[in-house]
Queue: 3 jobs
Job 1
Amino acid sequence: MNYFSRKVHLLKRSIQLGADTRTKFQLIKAQFNWLRAANENCQSARIHYNLKGKGGNFSAIVRDLPTDWIIFREIFYFDDYIDLTQLDWEPNTIYDIGANAGLAALYMHSIFPKAKIYGFEPGKAEFENAKLNYTQNNLGVIYPIGAGDENGSAVFYASEARSGGQGFAPSEEFKKDATTYTVQLWRLDDYIVDGNLPLPDLIKMDIEGFEVKALTGMDKALSHAKAIILETHGEELHAGVIKKLSEFGYKTITDSHRFSKFRILFSAK
């Protein structure tokens, strides 16, 4: 999609989302600012967005946090996962690995309303918000675990101020003001067997530098899936992800620079 086509696409989406001709960005920012002014002393305030997808209207629940506003903007304004619209088939089962607050699952639901989504999110606060989105919109099921190359427990680094960068392998800068707690880590192949989960047709992953380890623990899932879209965090990790996916017959469809060292990779068989 070239620059002009992308702008036209965003304009069409903004008209669908808003009652007037304001851009989505302006609408999102206005709603966040309005809620913050109305709830100055409310730390747990949430914003509800009414959105329109392929299957009809649905609602997105977003925490009143700068990081959630950024993630919402990236997904619904900048269309980080728009490459999924290139698929000429409909997935029945989607895995959302690193579900965060559940916003990526909502975006995928807007494209594939009939699919059942299985989310995996070890962050405590993010899991609770994602569970609201999953339940309210009948997306599927979400589990409070992390995906890795072994089963057991692991230290998770979290920060409400910067929830978009949390995980098992955050940057040293992130660690400075992060809260840590222990969460369950699973090889997804083992969790699939343990929980009798269906294998995925489509996989989305955003786990902040832990992607190669997670892929190492999901051979069965990768063998069954037909496509995967994920964010990578660094050149070495990016190369490692491509190498791992190529072993299972995946070919790169798009490889897009996002910002800084981050890229979004879309691969399919």
Job 2
Amino acid sequence: MLGSSSSSSKGGGNNNCDYSFKILLIGDSGVGKSSLLVTFISNFVHDLSPTIAGQERFGTLTSSYYRGAHGIILVYDVTRRETFTNLSEVWAKEVELYSTNQECIKVLVGNKVDRDSERAVTQEEGMALAQQLKCSFLECSARTRANVHQCFKDLVLKILEVPTLLEKGSTAVKKQILQQKQVRKPPESNACCFQ
């Protein structure tokens, strides 16, 4: 059903990032949400079986996933028309119903363009739906890595342009860094010194 991820702008590790954003990848099972994420964060392309979060029977947990999201990537499989139809009939309605962040940035992604001979949804249809949903649009392939990094980069750059999202992202990181510093602080000892 949906997946969640934090994406950081700038910096290499947890302690060096300037911002932390909650980004959701939503869409039907099997559209490649996990594959897009894994392709983005690693140098390897993996064949992934459906994740637990990708199973529709976990639908009762959805509202908590949407809470506080900075960005949402709505994913469909260009070779399966029903996944495209479900974005406008199911997923977009869930975003509207459960998203607590009104300025949340949305991107519509048609995945699996490497299978063009099996295409069931045209690029023009994707662009029209993106216009209807008031979001940007990209076609990607997790298998060939086409446009995957561009998708996440565009999303983060658009989040950085919205002052309220920017502040919420930086606040979360500040809290996380403070918590990490408290954990690393050496425990105080009540033991006496021996001479």
Job 3
Amino acid sequence: MDSRFKKFKILGAAALLSAALGGHAVAATCGNNASGFNTWVGQFKQEAARAGISQKTLDRAFKNVRYATKTISADRNQKSFKLSFDQFMRKRGASTIISKGKRLKAQNAGLFAALEKKYGVPPGPLIAIWGMETGFGSFMGNQHTVSAVATLAYDCRRSAFFTEQLYALMQLIQKGWLSPDFKGAAHGEIGQTQFLPANVARFGVNGDGSGGVNLASKADALASTANFLRGHGWRRGGGYQPGEVNFRAIQGWNAAGVYQKAIAKIGAEIDG
């Protein structure tokens, strides 16, 4: 990503949407199948242009956009979150994450010490998130990010939430931080710890002194994750198991209770 990342403050999606809907503008109409997607894209581009996204950015961003059937399938079939805690831990390979996580903690001791000093977050939960999200960066997704986010913004189930993400994504592209054809996960998550676009804007930081923010970078992704947790109320020195002060910050990372508990358990095993 561009080295200007840390300096640019993204205009909130709510403000962008308000600008887009000023006067007699009509919001793009959501849908639950592919039939209305192209019409919706045209409506969204008109709204986004009124909100200040350049026509050049919109043309580049939507040049190769398509209705993302794999994204919809993934969104409708998140069955692992319905498993018991023990079933979820086995399915996600928790024991492997813990054993490899301990090795990575030792191998990157300097990085984790610096992150804990700056953000107050110990290595365990950061490594747990890193391992759970991408297998420590081994697979960061192969889906066309603009298509994924646009499809979910069009889809009626969570249209408002993903419309906010799409506006943030347009600004990331407009500032040169992401390519229009960037690949990520099925719901538009980006990088080694899988940030949604709006969270890239809010919490993305540099972790290796390079001056830029690139969430495909281990150091940047982990620093940004620590910054996210601090931004969600993490208190230095506090516990992070269910019922403890920092568990609420973990809840901010993922809405699924079984996922939250897994991060806390795996993190504790890694921290020892």
